[in-house]
Write a structure and sequence with these properties.
Blueprint: E1 11-20, H1 24-32, H2 37-44, E2 47-57, E3 62-66, H3 73-80, E4 88-93, E5 96-97, H4 103-112, E6 114-118, H5 129-133, H6 135-140, H7 144-157, H8 173-187, E7 191-195, H9 203-220, E8 223-228, H10 231-237, E9 240-245, E10 248-253, H11 255-260, H12 265-271, H13 276-279, H14 282-285, E11 287-288, E12 299-301, H15 306-316, E13 320-324, E14 330-335, H16 336-344
Parallel strand pairs: 3-8, 3-9, 6-7, 7-8, 12-13
Antiparallel strand pairs: 1-2, 1-4, 4-5, 9-10, 11-14, 13-14
Length: 359
């Protein structure tokens, strides 16, 4: 796989198609010519899973793939470790195409370069927390003392110290998912694939697990591909988000891009109920300044939400605030009016795209 890169490997998905059926390859041309999902199954008996997927996932970041049930998101993530073979296209990890790997190369890739967290935990019921956590290292053939030391370190990091001898049926759902997370972290794979990893958890536990993941990511800086159908989760976790519908990418970009500029009515329906004050960052709507020495009475850091900025301004009785970088330099100025307008005003959806409907 070449030399390991800092922060894991970037992932490039190029012109990826998946058509389920005995003659999928022959149907790619039909799909390229514009045949739809319903027509393909009605006329040719084949199911369109993915259509012309092109996504660049930077190394060391969290890429969220979201969409409703049946949109193709779980199919897509299973192409990255080739649990599903594509009909056409490339999946580039570092400098290698996973699609072209032979059996031996693919086995090594799965053992050492990727790890997967599932929605249903997938713990081995006859193994305790420690034995579940070190399972991947055992498969890799690591020395036993290294297996135990590494597993115990990650058990502690995910907040399960003292539970290493418990069995899965003695743990809550949230604790079981922590074991699943510890297991993949113990493998030290540069790429983590998380398929609806927190969807089966109660809301409060789900938020807690999101916090655990974000805190860990500051340290581990893995390339994480996270599948979800929940926009709030996507916006909280994702450095970048791609939204799928009927196997196609409808829009991709930062959470700010998607909330502020929905591409069509499908995306707008997702973002309509979002609490914009807690999602939109101050620098997104502030007016940039070229004078880094400009000083105002109050300031907020880059990354502060509009809610945080508005609260700071109203508490200080000010109508504007500086937005400062990590060195304390002013990069933009946000007014209270700009903040309020962005909180309440939705971006106009392009009419040309509004014809797209939810299947």
């Amino acid at each position: 796989m070449g030399n390991r890169k800092v922060g894991g490997y970037g992932i490039e998905i190029k012109k990826l198609y998946k058509i389920f059926g005995p003659n999928g390859a022959a149907c790619v041309k039909l799909v390229e010519q514009g045949i739809g999902k319903a027509e393909l199954i009605a006329q040719h008996g084949h199911v369109l899973g993915l259509r012309d997927i092109n996504i660049s996932m930077p190394a060391g970041g969290i890429q969220v793939i979201m969409g409703l049930s049946g949109s193709g998101k779980s199919t897509l993530i299973r192409h990255i470790n080739r649990l599903i073979d594509p009909t056409a296209g490339e999946v580039l990890i570092g400098d290698e195409d996973v699609v072209k790997m032979d059996t031996a190369q693919l086995r090594e890739f799965r053992r050492h370069k990727t790890a997967m967290v599932f929605q249903k935990f997938a713990l081995l019921p006859h193994r305790n927390v420690l034995e579940n956590t070190l399972y991947g290292l055992e498969i890799q053939g690591a020395p036993r003392n290294r297996q135990v030391d590494c597993a115990m370190r990650w058990i502690e990091r995910v907040g399960l110290k003292g539970f290493e001898n418990r069995y899965p049926n003695q743990l809550s759902g949230g604790m079981q998912q922590r074991v699943g997370l510890a297991r993949v972290l113990a493998n030290d794979a540069p790429i983590l694939l998380m398929d609806e990893a927190f969807s089966a958890l109660d809301p409060l536990i789900r938020v807690d697990m999101q916090t655990v993941l974000l805190d860990l990511q500051k340290e581990i800086k893995k390339t994480i591909v996270f599948i979800t159908h929940d926009l709030d989760e996507a916006l909280r976790l994702g450095d970048r988000i791609a939204i799928l519908l009927d196997g196609e990418v409808v829009q991709q970009g930062t959470g700010q891009d998607i909330v502020m500029k929905p591409a069509d009515e499908y995306i707008a329906s997702f973002v309509r109920e979002v609490n914009r004050a807690r999602i939109i960052k101050a620098e997104t709507v502030a007016t940039a300044t070229t004078d880094p020495r400009r000083e105002l009475r109050i300031s907020v850091p880059v990354g502060a939400t509009l809610e945080e900025a508005a609260r700071a301004m109203t508490s200080a009785g000010e109508s504007e605030t500086a937005v400062v970088d990590e060195e304390g330099r002013t990069i933009a100025v946000l007014t209270l009016r700009q903040a309020v307008d962005a909180m309440v005003n939705s971006q106009t959806v392009p009419s040309a795209a509004a014809v797209k409907k939810v299947a």
